[in-house]
Design brief:
Layout: E1 2-4, E2 6-8, E3 11-13, E4 20-25, E5 30-36, H1 40-58, H2 62-78, H3 80-91, H4 95-112, H5 115-118, E6 123-128, E7 131-139, E8 142-146, H6 154-165, E9 169-173, H7 180-191, E10 199-201, H8 206-214, E11 220-224, H9 227-239, E12 243-247, E13 252-256, H10 262-274, E14 284-290, H11 294-305, H12 325-340, E15 344-347, E16 366-369, H13 376-379, E17 386-392, H14 395-404, E18 407-408, E19 410-414, H15 418-427, E20 432-435, E21 451-452, E22 455-456, H16 463-469, E23 471-479
Parallel strand pairs: 1-5, 8-9, 8-11, 9-10, 11-12, 13-14, 13-19, 14-17, 16-17, 19-20
Antiparallel strand pairs: 2-3, 4-5, 6-7, 7-23, 12-22, 15-16, 18-21
Helix pairs in contact: 1-8, 2-4, 3-4, 3-7, 4-6, 8-9, 10-11
The structure holds nicotinamide-adenine-dinucleotide.
Amino acid sequence: MQTIAHWLDGKAFAGTGGTTAPVTNPATGVVTGEVTLANVADTRAAIDSAAKAFPAWRDTSLTRRTQILFRFRELLNERKEELARLITAEHGKVLADAIGEVSRGLEVVEFACGIPHLLQGGYTENASTKVDIFSIRQPLGPVAIISPFNFPAMVPMWFFPIAIAAGNTVVLKPSEKDPSPSLWLARLWAEAELPAGVFTVVQGDQVAVDELLDNPVVKAVSFVGSTPIARYVYQRGTAAGKRVQALGGAKNHMVVLPDADLDLAADAAVNAGFGSAGERCMAISVVVAVGGAADELVGKIAERAATIKTGDGTRGADMGPLVTRAHRDHVADYIAAGESAGATVILDGRGVEADGATDGFWLGPTILDNVATDMSVYTDEIFGPVLSVVRVDTYDDALALINANPYGNGTALFTNDGGAARRFHNEVEVGMVGINVPIPVPMSYYSFGGWKNSLFGDAHAHGADGVRFFTRTKAVTTRWLDPSHGGLNLGFPQNR
Ligand code: NAD
């Protein structure tokens, strides 16, 4: 059984003690390794390594930094299937989906390759007589990334390509459930000739997270995970004086108006509801059927969902297992709670016959109709293959439902009415909106982030927000010709 530990000073580091946690293949239920959970001393060692590497990396030319990024991009593109296999082995998502995850992360690396352009400042000549002003963007120092289990490669890649390109050094604390992709990425950086200490990995749990939040050497924290932990990370990190962006959980609604193409909407609901077994922060978990479309729509969704093959992600299944047995059972409990609260079970995944080992953490696609807003299947983020259908009479009812929800990550509207679409994207209180697009994940050159309890802080991930988050601006005022010899004057300087 393999031991999965840290990456420090450009090489593997076993750590000096601390506890361990099992790592499981969700498709077999077999424990395949154990991950070392860092103690405070090892977390400090990772932070110190990042601090030591910072001055030289900050002063490394943009040309050199960009060359390393391009090399990393080439290596990642060549070997993305290798990384995808590691993701499937510890997360469970099917291989095609894991390759998709890596590809979306790769897009952020490609965006960061344009860092010389992204860091360009401004210059103003003669702001006052023979006085010029320019602005520059400078890196912050060592920064921390704390990531969730559901995208062990893509989510860290939302942040570290831009952080590193901008001249920061990074300490990544991945999820303890699927820790191996982080070390694979660290080795790839070394192969791309990133100097030792610029990218460091510390495996761990709350002990490591608390040290990253409290240690004054760490200047910024990018967190992605569930809402309670996001709130905690934001509060503790900002109390320690850091810049924090903390992306939290979600409950994404897909509204279907009666004029929509119902086949398109049904395909979208199934793909977005059951892709990655519903373990995506942009998964659709609630279909809001408006007016007369509901019966036909539910029929079409159920027909399609019944054809999904659940099984081992390496064997060509459509949908893999859930990440742990505990999570599988937790999601199954929600289905039972919905049923006993009066929801109609249209499709029940609890008895699924999966194409995989009997000890895999299987749960098939499940559809609950006539879900009411006070049922736990509606109020809570389930994070599994469970699609709830809520029926409402009008567009206004659907909008009110979404805007009253405490989460605001993603949403979608299906319609052929341009006016309704225009109203929706203008009025809905959600950070990422799709019109006839069920998972509206923005491209790397736009920013990714939700509203309300789906994000704490004011910077979204990647795009312009990412560059702003990982840099601070400095404005420099200069006078070289005819320096003033006006003698002493304690008045506030005025421009002439
Ligand atoms: P999680 O909150 O359990 O864990 C996220 C990270 O926090 C992990 O690295 C974990 O080790 C650490 N952590 C867990 N408990 C902690 C504690 N008590 N103190 C300090 N650190 C702690 O989330 P998860 O189960 O790994 O991921 C699923 C969640 O992430 C879902 O809620 C999902 O919606 C959310 N998510 C959100 C986005 C987004 O962009 N908004 C993207 C992906 C996932």
